Amino acid sequence: MYVINRETIKQEIKNFDKVIQKIICVKFSVACAEKCLILWTLTYPNDQRPLEAIMAAKKWIEKPSEENRKNASKAAINVVYSTIYVTNRYIVNVAHSAWAAAETAHSIYPIDYVVEAIDEAATACNSIISTSGSRDHYGDICITNEWLAQTLNEIIQEYSATLSF
């Protein structure tokens, strides 16, 4: 069970305006998706759709426009198609994490997709490590409560100056 959940995220970002809340959610989703993307890349080096979804979410972070929101949605749909013939469920989790990152940018309820990105990325990373019996082959992809808390804290710190009390 992860200590970073829907309620924790809501509590941490409640003092920010809605746009900054969504940017924080998208950045956190992207961080989770990027953490496990290597698993997809090693398995499907020629299929860039999960990376494209992550990049679409990042583009929305840079410029939160309606056009970039729609592009994130299109990229998310393409990720779904990328998993049609994938038989390894943990690799599917990687793609779903990228999908959730793009959907966080697209959604008006970003917290739901952040939680999805966390769950999918953590399942992919931690399951691959436990089934392979080694972190050596995949590098440092383990998603722990500490990593989640530190990553969320770092993202929030970026925007703390925007708070006005």
How are the elements arranged and paired?
Layout: H1 6-13, H2 18-43, H3 49-62, H4 66-82, H5 89-106, H6 110-132, H7 145-159
Protein architecture, described:
This protein is mainly alpha-helical and 165 residues long. It has one domain (15-158). 73% of the residues lie in helices and 0% in strands. The protein has seven helices and no strands. The protein has helices at residues 6-13, 18-43, 49-62, 66-82, 89-106, 110-132, 145-159. Helix 2 (18-43) packs across helix 7 (145-159) and helix 4 (66-82) runs antiparallel to helix 5 (89-106). It is globular, with a radius of gyration of 15 Å. It starts with 5 loop residues before the first helix and ends in a 6-residue tail after the last helix.
Q: What is the arithmetic mean of pLDDT?
A: 87
Q: Given the structure, what is the number of helices? A: 7
Indicate the proportion of strand residues: under 5%
Number of domains: 1
Percent range of helical residues: over 70%
Query: Gap between N and C termini, in Å?
Result: 34 Å
Question: What is the string of helix and strand elements?
Answer: HHHHHHH
**Structural class, from helix and strand content?**
mainly alpha
- Rg calc: 15 Å
Tertiary shape: globular
- Uncertain regions spanning at least 5 consecutive residues: none
How many beta-strand segments? 0
How would a crystallographer describe the biggest sheet? none
